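Quick one: structure for this chain?
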Amino acid sequence: MKRLSETYIELGIAFDFPIEIKDAKGCKTYCEESDGYWNKREYDANGNETYYEDSEGYWNKRKYDAKGKVTYCEESDGYWNKREYDDKGNETYYEDSDGYWNKREYDADGSITYYETSWGYKEGTPSSQTEDSQVKSESEYKRLEDTISELKQDKERLDWLLKNCLIKELDFEWVHDSRETIDEAMKGEL
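Got it. Here's what it folds into:
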């Protein structure tokens, strides 16, 4: 990017350093120092800085929620982070490009009641971990165990069919619908 001081010199406009330009709301959009360093900024309608760039090649972009909280930030070196907030503006989730994340839950007064990180640290009890959700988890676990057991039996059935019937192509839907018939054949009842 061409420095503003170079343009001023070309146009014969007198100036002093630092050169600063502000938008109608008073937010600094450009600044240039006498050593050639400059930076420029862009803002959203609420005055939140959405873009920053400087003469050393660094830049960052930011997005905000309706309350002015940063929800996403990306930097020129590839680093990024994103955040989520509850209705009261408390940060409930954070994640970054390094693989780190954390989750937080709050009580009505805004005090942290649960905190968990990608490093395995946990403090408090998540609100989702109630007696009902534990029962649901236990029933889901039982259902999963039953499914695994049924799959093991299906493998035994398939092995028997392949060994005894010389099946080269297998219709898995037929095997599913024919479990009892296959079981009887395996016991020698057919």
